[in-house]
Task: inverse folding
């Protein structure tokens, strides 16, 4: 099993020239509360669109069964990650309670946008606001909303048995929902086929305007 990754010419995505657009690249950012189904919708949509590259976060955590390099993360050693920090290679990064690092690779983003490649990732609302300020001409923001708060509470309760953890996540939901109006597109995830189809239509609407 592959444990760590090597950068491809300084990037974490192997871009193909056939997907290059005659315009600056677009950065699609999908946000929404925990448990709303962002990854499920991305997994539905990406095989149905052409020329949009998923931007994985870089992490130092171990690769799990069923994962591969770049899906869902780009895996590196802690030494390599800390070297990237020192080189200023992250748009943002964090170290979580397990001691593992997670970060968003800035050189891949800047290369894609400067060279006409479209990329997509999921990101929390605060991170999205920062990226919108940094790349205002390139970001296409998409917010995934739950059909209602009670259904989301049930989803979170199904994931986590600790009621205090569920309560904290629900508090964060209220904060995240407060940013919804700042997004260019909002999709209510009430049904996978319908919401996934809407995400596909949004992504294709930008690809059609090459």
Result:
């Amino acid at each position: 099993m592959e444990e760590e990754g090597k950068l491809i010419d300084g990037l974490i995505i192997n871009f193909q020239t056939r997907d290059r657009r005659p315009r600056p690249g677009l950065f699609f950012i999908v946000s929404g509360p925990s448990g709303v189904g962002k990854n499920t919708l991305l997994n539905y949509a990406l095989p149905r669109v052409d020329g949009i590259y998923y931007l994985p976060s870089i992490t130092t955590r171990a690769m799990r069964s069923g994962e591969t390099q770049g899906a869902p993360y780009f895996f590196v050693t802690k030494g390599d990650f800390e070297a990237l920090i020192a080189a200023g290679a992250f748009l943002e990064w964090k170290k979580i309670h397990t001691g593992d690092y997670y970060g968003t690779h800035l050189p891949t983003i800047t290369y894609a946008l400067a060279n006409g490649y479209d990329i997509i990732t999921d990101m929390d609302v605060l991170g999205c606001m920062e990226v919108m300020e940094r790349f205002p001409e390139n970001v296409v923001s998409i917010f995934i909303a739950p059909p209602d708060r009670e259904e989301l509470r049930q989803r979170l309760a199904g994931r986590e048995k600790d009621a205090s953890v569920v309560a904290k996540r629900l508090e964060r939901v209220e904060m995240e929902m407060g940013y919804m109006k700042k997004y260019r597109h909002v999709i209510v995830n009430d049904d996978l086929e319908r919401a996934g189809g809407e995400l596909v239509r949004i992504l294709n609407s930008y690809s059609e305007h090459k």
